[in-house]
Amino acid sequence: MVDSVSKILFHLVAQSGTLKKLASRYGMRRPSSFARRFIAGETVADAIAAARAVEARGMLISLDLLGESVATLAAADVATGGYLDVIDAIITSGIERNISLKLTQLGLDVDKASAIDNLRKILERAAAAGFFVRIDMESSEYTEVTLEIFETLWGHGYRQMGVVLQSALLRSEQDLPRMNALGARVRLVKGAYKEPKSVAYPKKADVDAAYARMLRVLMADGHYPAIATHDPAMIELARAQNVAPDRFEFQMLYGVRRDLQARLVNAGYRVRVYIPFGREWFPYFMRRLGERPANVMFVIRGILGEHG
Ligand code: FDA
Asked: Which residues are the active-site residues?
């Protein structure tokens, strides 16, 4: 109950333009401010510094320039240019060449063809420099179009990219063999968006059960799968599949369960940390808060000036 109330509350708050402006103006000002637990900072330099620290702990990284749906093609061009600059900065820095992005950021809500063109520009630059590009999965209205775009570009020979499937969605257990048959690298997540009952499991226990079923299929038939979760039960299940540790990776979010991240690395597993950064951090931050009521206390402590 508390879980779902806090989820709804934070999804509503995340929609608020005024709060968003206030938060971007004040929330990230101090390095110790509450949002800094989950977001590496506002600039690519902040993200690279965070990535270096994560790599020094023996982990892999993926940088995500935060941003959600844009409303004009001009804004999509800006976002695409932003990603091209991030690629260049990563090359110069020498950190691992791995990024995650969202298609609505590249203009999917404005014009599908332009979004594909923008993605292609990023993939061209990325492929030439040996990057891996993960296309994040957004809410269910984008699932089919995201998979279709992925398949189209895969058909055009772009192979250094992967998709994400969400166990919360009823359709995902059909999408998994579709992606496995293609040879695609799949990141398995539970799903971060509030979805209607018509398309998603309303109960968390069902989301978890679907995750476990999909995990088994992915570990048996997948292509270097990414088990993206902080759930110890799912992590144990992945380990129990006895797949060699260099044939898959665990993935976790920056600032979440750092203890578990370290334990898995010490046990010889690959752990990739997803490092979000950028000025448009507010919706991402709200999704993280909505996932766990205890995070709200963290925020309140942050506002009161304590360090978390
Ligand atoms: P669950 O929610 O059951 O949490 C298990 C435990 O993890 C909790 O008990 C708690 O200890 C810890 N935990 C989880 N979330 C926390 C938080 N916010 N703060 C503190 N502790 C927390 N989603 C999506 O829809 N599209 C996507 O593309 C991605 N991409 C993505 C990449 C990576 C690398 C990760 C790890 C996750 C995503 N997600 C995502 C988010 C995902 O769908 C999901 O919302 C979160 O991972 C939380 O779910 P868990 O699997 O961790 O399990």
From this structure: 136, 187
